[in-house]
Amino acid sequence: MEGILSTKQELTGMEHISTLKEWLDSPKRIAITTHQRPDGDAIGSSLGLYHFLKACGHKVKIVAPTDYGENLKWLPGKEDIIIGPDDPDMANWAFESADLIFCLDFNALNRINEFEDTVRYADGKKIMVDHHLEPDPFSDVDFWDHTASSTAEMVFRMIVSLDATDKISKDAAEAIYMGVMTDTGSFRFTTTTPGVHRMIAVLMEKGADSNKIHDRVFGNSTENRLRFFGHCLSNCLFILPELKTAYLKVDKSVFKEFYIKPGETEGLVNYALGIKGVNLGILLTSQDDIVKLSFRSREEVSASELAKTFGGGGHFYAAGARIQGNLDEAESQLLALLEERKEMLTK
After folding, report:
1. What's the pLDDT band for 14 if we cut at 50, 70, 90?
2. Is 311 helix (H, G, I), strand (E, B) or coil?
3. Of 263 and 26, more confident
4. For residue 56, which of 141, 152, 142, 172 has the smallest C-alpha distance?
């Protein structure tokens, strides 16, 4: 696989590879976890790493802090994903008994909800693999690069740097492909570099079926989810042309009405950003006394800068935050912030 990683930039964050290789030299008990409400990159990177580690002879379990969308549940290995709230004893045991804990697609332990302290104080070595800005220093070893397209890409680069691409099975390749595809907007975003395309070529050579993967993820929506999207676009969309901004405000009652599960809002915010003349799209969703904000941007508008105002973060063009309170209060705070940042939004 020489030549896949052809620049120093693509190898950024791999200085700990010799340490990881030493840890993986003998069979280990390994736990993999990712952030709450896992998206395609979270599940794809987790299952890609899972299949790789199993092929290397390790015992592996995945713990998801919450359930995830039905359109991501077709990949082989899903039977070894423990949904934490459904089986907290098994989830805690997976962490407490692990020699190694891989933390994928998040950079702060509060992203795994009630399992934060379990992972923090577990005896196993923690390995963070991530591409979000400003990671917290909780891991023993990290593979981090904010310029990477996805955590799935980071997993692939890690495997290449371990000289172990022969252990990438078709199942691993399809999982990694799905992670990269979803986090690059089907290879539309600016993070889709020549290196990403070279990686995708390798994954396809390993058996990843691009047509099947795209159809399973984007062509396999439930009727409830489709009607939910239609309701939100018809009734919950607000456009602020003077700020080149559009936002969706979705109350928890709407989730109940359409039986929407965690993770099934993935992609909704992109419809707000897809409006002509809009450079910032925002999704506000409420669950109990917490409002989640998802920011998507283009041009020179920094989603991460806006999210930081509310204690959140992420990437330049994609970020998130949470606000304590109800949906109307969060909307008022958001509108005040947008007025303050009008110059950035409209230049």
Report:
1. low
2. coil
3. 26
4. 172
What digits encode the pLDDT tens for the residues 170-200?
A: 999 999 999 999 999 999 888 999 999 999 9
Is the pLDDT confidence value at 7 over 50? no
Amino acid at 192: T
Instruction: Read off the pTM.
Output: 0.86
Q: Do 304 and 315 contact (CB within 8 A), yes or no?
A: yes
Q: Specify whether the CB–CB gap between 189 and 223 falls below 8 A.
A: no
Report d(CA 173, CA 192) in Å as an integer. Answer: 18
DSSP per position, 18-31: HHHHHHTSS--EEE
The answer to whether 105 and 35 have CB atoms below 8 angstroms apart is: yes
- Cα 4 → chain centroid: 23
Cα separation values, 305 from 240, 246, 295, 301, 320, Å:
19, 17, 10, 9, 10
Can you give the pLDDT at residue 70?
86
Closest CA to 40 of 121, 164, 151: 151
Nearest Cα to Cα of residue 322 among 163, 125, 53, 111: 111
